[in-house]
Amino acid sequence: MSKMYFLSDAKSSKFLRRAFWVFGLSAMAVIVFCLVAGIVPTSASDDDDNSCSSRGPAIQLPITKLFIEHNSTNEDTGVHGAFDGLNWQRLCVYDPNGRQVLDVAPKRQLRTLAMSGIFFESREPPNNEVSIEQIEAMFPEGLYSVRGRTLDGKRMTGAATFTHDIPAAPVITFPQDAGIVSPNGFAVMWNHVTTDLDGDPINRTGYEVIITKDVPNDPNGFSRPTYDVHVLPNETSLSVPSEFLEPNTRYELEVLVLEVSGNQTITIVHFVTQ
What we know:
The strands form 2 sheets. Strands 1, 2, 3, 4, 5, 6, 7, 9, 11, 12, 14 and 15 form a 12-stranded mixed sheet that branches. A 3-stranded antiparallel sheet has the order 8-10-13, with no helix packed on it. By secondary structure, the protein is α+β, with helices and mostly antiparallel strands. It has 3 helices and 15 strands. The protein is globular and about 65 Å long. The longest helix has 29 residues.
């Protein structure tokens, strides 16, 4: 026959105190073990911290770019990146030493919709605040691996080659800074760039010419007039049509030289139409 035991109030209180004491020690032991083992508890709704290292068949991310942009006029430098081509819910980038430098994880409705691409620009501090040498030390040359998870749960991989081959500054020969040009059209002209900032030869892939009407940003959208053209690496001039220009108007002109790694250097001048 089974027996039932009842405790008096005093004995019951003593029993409960001992039970809580034993339970507390057990709980503390579990917490210490988790901390030593590097286990961090998360709620079921939290993203898996290891989701960028998931297993299974991998899909290659088509566009993976990481490059340096140097502004020779403003004397500042930053790191830019572009990752595109698949629908994904998590994307991580690791430097050649295996250190994570980027983690993108959309939340809630954006996570449900997923992302297909992202382009970012780092802060571009003045070179007297953060030198180019410091930027290069922070971002070593080599292969930056990309890992992530697609919308349908597949493993996503990729890699971006990052170099320190920063082109020397393009020299704009026309128009001069603060120069006056005809609103009926003119040709932007510049000298070829053949070396990097250290004087070593570069593999030039092209130039980009950007002319922007120098007015406050349009508060209603992105309608500020801009003329943006990529030209072949053997060209040193570009015609600007009269259809883009207005009389008595100030413009900003940027000429960029692009190196095969994607690294680019900008020179800026301003001009005014008659």
